[in-house]
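Why does residue order matter? Because the sequence determines the fold. Keep that principle in mind as you read this record.
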Amino acid sequence: MQRKRRYTLCESKLAMAYYEGFTQSGDTLFAVCNANDEGRHFVIFNRFRSYERGTKWGRFHCRSQLFVSSMLKIYAFAVDAKETEAEEWNCYFHDSGVSWAEKRTYFEQNGIQYVNHEDVLLYTLVGEYLWIAVEIDDGEINKGSVEWIKEIFLDSQGDNFMWTFPEIYQSEGGFFHRYMSIFSSMYQDMSDQIANMEKAFDLDTTPIEVLLELAGWLGFAVERDFLDEFMLRSLIKEIYALNRIKGTKEVIRKLIKLALGEEAVIVERNRLEGCFSEETRETYQRLYGTSIQDVTILLKRSGSERLQAQMIYLLNQFKPARSHIRLVFCPSRSSLDTYCYLDYNAVLSVKGEGSMDDGIRMNGTSVLK
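Structure:
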């Protein structure tokens, strides 16, 4: 029985294809319609090779977004040939001097064609080498609009439901074969998903949708697009340990370290009584609050409103009960030479003595003697 293989057309494989009217971005081909084009876009994928003569090819799949008036056409043909002959065919299909009309005619005369199908069965094609072309034929040109094709893969036939039936029902290409192939493809897709289930729990690579679901399982409330993906992945990796120390000062420290990669200064207002005089009381109260439940977090960096909102959103899920979090960003101090405002975070630059032989930097704050 022929062993099943899957050929996935990822970014590197698409880069080897020959296409006109498309631009590649990752594993997606985009067709941008302009008023000066002919409304026709095509791609001829690099040859597929099974390394087995007489290979029976299976399902070809792609996902597309097209205009209502557009048509998706898929062409394919297979052949058993020597490697040098296959290379000649490959060069022919990638030759920019040969028109698409001529290449399409070759596919039509020697292979099969499907129109407006994203899943096609190639069971009638037999051969070690296989070529596939995909064409988008636009009926009406919508200037500036974008069509695309992605999630492209090819299966060799492999194990099929047909082989479980008596030989009299195994006639290829007949109604029963085509009918059972639908269920065979569904079963193979389901089997592949089950076989690759562990990838869904790899926090470094799992899709963002699965990541959000995993966060919910772990009792971590997240809002889509609010937290950065890198920040979210880093937090979920440590969420179990964070939940075990929830409501403590230590969880606040670790949370900031994970999210921002730096240590924070955490000041509890109830520990400051008697630490400042009456002259400075008002200043300290503005910074550290007036309630014993106020907790001030000082970060030695600049921060945007979005970053502050993200951190408050995270801290509110792990902070001690009834406490109030105050987040203060303390960027690097400025000097008058940088046209700063004289706020509490500004200082006057101090001129120092130096020697040219010491490699001193002439930045306007040095005095030569």
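The chain has four domains: 6-158, 196-244, 256-332, 342-369.
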